[in-house]
Every structure is written in C-alpha cells, then in structure tokens.
Amino acid sequence: DVVMTQSPLSLPVTLGQPASISCRSSQSLVYSDGNTFLNWFQQRPGQSPRRLIYKVSNRDSGVPDRFSGSGSGTDFTLKISRVEAEDVGVYFCMQGTHWPWTFGQGTKVEIK
Amino acid sequence: EVQLVESGGGLVQPGGSLKLSCAASGFTFSTSWMSWIRQAPGRGLEWVANIKQDGSEKHYVDSVKGRFTISRDNAENSLYLQMNSLRAEDTAVYYCARPSRSSSSEYWGQGTLVTVSS
Fold first, then answer.
1. What's the CA gap between B89 and B44, in Å, rounded?
2. pLDDT at position B79, please?
3. Is the dihedral of CA A23, A68, A71, A42 positive or negative?
4. Cβ contact, residue pair B44, A105, below 8 Å
5. Is the pLDDT of residue A86 over 90?
6. Is the predicted pLDDT of residue B102 greater than 90, yes or no?
7. What is the structure's pLDDT at B42?
8. Shortest CB distance from B45 goes to which of A1, A37, A49?
9. Cβ–Cβ gap A48/B102 under 8 Å
10. Among candidates B5, B56, B40, B42, which has minimal Cα distance to B26?
11. Residues of chain A neighbouring B51 (CB-CB closer than 8 A)
C-alpha cells in the first residue's frame, strides 16, 4: 500500500499568519493517464471530513481561496495564506491513484 | 441538495454481523461510483471499499476482504455494506461517500458508529 506521511502532526498557528502542511507518498502518485490524484481534506471537531483540494491544486466548490495546494510526484503541500479561527481542525492528505486509496495520519491545526 | 444518510450502526459482539445502509439523494446515484470509508475513534481514515456504477466492479482494502461486501440498489438510490465476522478493530464511524477524483462533486455523509465489543 502507498504510505502517506504528513508533517508536522501538530501545528499551532497565530490568527492571520500563514500555515503549511507537507505530505509525502511512498511512491509516485502520477496515474497512467497523467493525472495526479492527491487530495486534501479538512475535518473540523465533531464533523465529517470535507475535501478542500483535488488533483493536487484544484479547490473544491466553496473552499476559500486562502487554501492552496501544490506539488508533484511524491511531495505535496497544503498552504493556508492567513489562518482564520474556522480553520481549526485536522487536515489529511489522501491519494486516489493506487488502490487501496490511503490517507496521511493527519495534522492538527490549532490557534496559539 | 445532496444528501447521503447512513444507518444501521450499533453495538455488535465480536464475530457478529451488521449491515449498513446509505440513502442517497440530490445527484444521479446510478451513474456514480460509491464508497465506504471508516474512522476509528481518535484515529485516522481508512478507505474501505468502492463499487462501480452497475456493481460489476468492487474493490476492498485487505483488512476487510472476505468479511465485508459492498453492494448497491440503483432503483432505491441506496448503498450497502454487509459486515461479517466483525472484530474489535472494526470499531469505527463508517462514512458513505460519492467519490469524484477529477471534479468538484465529491460528497460524504455524516457517518454511522459501529462498535464491536462483548
């Protein structure tokens, strides 16, 4: 199975400041059709996961533009340009290239 | 409005069985791949199973192969997960989802809790 490794696992941030989460996969996430199926999810306390980013850098509907995704191959990053109070929660990367689809361990974002 | 509503969770003894259901509305169920994903309490996420639109193709994570069966009824807009030979490590919130790898139309339900304990 593809192992997804996130860092850091805990991220205290100051309101209004940027935040960045790294995700590395144990093998390339480039699919045979050239697409890279790397997603980012947000899970707020007590809620279901919600996808923010698909195919590395595409924002889902309704996702604020302060969230952005980048990367290629095996190295990916989620950035929040200016953290807001509603961004508190756990963030997961997830690969949908190789079955079984797998998630990272999660990064807990909290306000300092 | 898209809705995915899971039901059927509860407390079951080790070795027992349970069948989860997911009622879908607000999108064309019959043309959608569907999935089950689970999250053990205080832990990460695990993608459990996928099923193709017509049910002809199914994929399972190794930890549930031979014990769980994903199925669907397109006439009823419903997704199912039959879980047999349940173990303590199957305890989790189970989410029904409509995955979408290439567009912004992925939906998840609110989940149903399955607890395997004696």
1. 13
2. 98
3. positive
4. yes
5. yes
6. no
7. 79
8. A49
9. no
10. B5
11. none
Query: With pLDDT > 90 as the criterion, what percentage of chain A qualifies?
Result: 100
Using CA coordinates, name the residue in chain A closest to B104.
A60
* Kind of pairing between the strands at B3-7 and A75-80: unpaired
Within 13 Å and on the Cβ side, how many CA atoms surround A32?
1
Q: If you write DSSP's letter for every residue of A9-25 in order, what string do you get? A: SEEEE-TTS-EEEEEEE
Which residue in the block uniquely carries the two structure tokens 């205080």? B42
Whether A61 and A49 have beta carbons less than 8 Å apart is answered as: no
What angle is formed at CA A81 by the lines to CA A78 and CA A85, rounded to 5 degrees? 95
Residue type, A101: W
Q: Which residues of A touch B103 (CB under 8 A)?
A: 54
Q: Which contacts (CB < 8 Å, 24+ apart) does range B24-33 have? A: B24/B77, B24/B78, B24/B79, B24/B96, B24/B98, B25/B1, B25/B77, B26/B1, B26/B2, B27/B2, B27/B98, B27/B105, B27/B107, B29/B72, B29/B74, B29/B77, B30/B74, B30/B77, B32/B98, B33/B98, B33/B99
The whole-angstrom distance between B101's CA and the closest CA on chain A is 7
What per-residue confidence (pLDDT) applies to A57?
Answer: 98
Contact A94 B45 (CB under 8 A): yes
The torsion angles phi and psi of B88, rounded to 5 degrees, stand at: -55, -35
Q: Average model confidence (pLDDT) for chain B?
A: 96
Best of B104, B105, B110, B112 to mutate (most A CBs within 10 Å, chain A): B104
